[in-house]
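Ticket reopened. Same input as before:
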Amino acid sequence: MMSMNEMGQNQARKGRSNLQALVMLFVLIGMFIVLSLLSPMFSRVGNVINIFKQTAINGILATGMACAILVGGFDMSVGSTVGLSGIIAALMATGGQEGLFLPVVCSVLAGLLVGVINGVAVAYMKVPAFVVTLGTQSIVRGLAYILSGGRPIFGVSESYEKIAGGLLFGKIPYLVIYYIVIALLMGFILQCTVYGRRMYAVGGNAEAARVSGINVEFIQMSAFAICGLMGGIAGMLSTSRTVSAAPLTGEGYELDAIASCVIGGFSMDGGAGKWYGMIIGALILSVMSNGLDILGVASYYQRILKGAIIIIIVLIDVRSKRKRT
Amino acid sequence: MKSKAKWLLTLLLIISIISMSVACAPSQPASTDTGGEKPVDTGAPDDGKEPVVYFCISHMTNAWAITASESMEAEAKKQGANLTVLEAGQDINAQVSQVEMAVTNGADAIIIEPVSAEGAIAAIKKAEQDGVRVIVYNQNIADPSQATTFVGVSNADMGYMEMKAAIDAIDGKGNVVLLLGPMGSEGQIGRSAGYDKALKEYPDVNVVFQEDAQWTTEEALKLVENWISTGTEINAVVSQNDNMALGAIKAFEDAGIEGVPVYGVDAVDDALKAIKKGRLTGTVDQATAEQSRLAIEVAIKLSKGEAVEKEYLAEPTLIDINNIDNYLTE
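Engineering reply: fixed in the latest deploy. New output:
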């Protein structure tokens, strides 16, 4: 049974993360207005499409990461998964191989497999998520190097390039469409399905969820599987976007994905976070990077800004937690 | 019982990972190009014993490093040296112990491509004190006097050659953007110095954007997309490696902009193909195979006790549509 105190804490956590997602929405709008004033080029349609293109890969990773965070874990291996699945896709889409089925399916499945391995180790073998995914991060990166022979792979087929690069209505890249569809679908799953609600329940209080008949291990495992799956999809799309794949691709992406979720109001304790938070979080990161590039601010300052924003948000999180106890 | 199950699952995990790598292995591309020259086995030299040479390379994780180690092995076979390649995985501590190991294993000469310009010095000094001659390869150390000799190519020469070609392509005036390697890396510092030298000669050429793109295609793609967004006219792109140059090409293609010359460095296979197709304008070859030939030649000389010079520089070459057919082997 959940004690009254715990229940109160859970309620508070959820309320706070909803509030944070809303606050971040205003931050995003504010950033957009300020950057538009600073540079008239910023708010042009072409650049807004650019921003969404640059959000898509990290945004897709963030939707997966949100699941892992919701059940109380996180996934350090997802950047490596992007590298591996990108390499697999590139190997199957270069050298005159025009087919799309093999590269797409194999790269996405590779991601799913990594996710399932992570999930089984975390949920059933009770190894801490950080340890498991740090291990798979290294293993998967190693596989990417072995498969590629250490070399970047260029020259994917034109049909493969169209997967992400093709345009809807001659204007909107498919890459952006995929992101919107995946994010909305994930929003629907989290918000409107029993499965989604169970993820919140497991992350909020695993024991209470178990008592009420939820298969806690399965929910945890599947959340990591989804995270891996998104890594696979992101890698597959990244290869199409850059028309190339390198074994190093995706290094550090897991941190941006985690940052997007944290900025968007997902609690690292699990069980709390609004689905639109992960979209807002991902957009904030890419609006910042795009806007500062346009203003000509060196990337080194951008790193400092990004880090500062993350810390400030977590600081607010910690402070409000302290007030309740 | 419970711990047994845990072990079983761990085993399962390992097996599934291994089977995954095995299942995917056949799709690996054959990597047999050795940088132009074919290895020829000429047998042992006159005294019947080949000199023992160790090649300590910083990592084996990109196209250049693989070309370097493959060409080195090919040259060792050709010129008659017993070569062992040791890879440090970008870890300076690993490289230091590898140098020590080479000394204890009776190396006649050590060729080292240092992980760091500072960190490798102590190990090199120690090896020289123990009587093993050290040849620094491709990337020089902070204090070149500590090693016997340096074999490489001047990054400044390559940068100058590349920038000069780009400036010629835009008739000596216009806006250029620069895609740089990580600030402070030797390649970046040297190539940027070469850029500056060429830019000084042409005051009508303006650098409108320059940024660190971490040697990667995706970072370069993002940057150039954003630069195009600013509406600033870009007349040429000068990139410090080919991966980033290819990202720039993709950004222009996506934006529907044609005719902007893009230059790179490294002459990787796909850059050569891109030149042939007219997508990439040019690249500078750092003559890796020639560097390897020189390194092995010097190593053999040293093992015979012959005197060598303090520095050997291979000549970089500009590859563009005019001479591409000499480099594309297919």
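The longest strand of chain B covers residues 205-212. Chain B has two domains: 52-152+288-313, 155-285. Please confirm and we'll close it.
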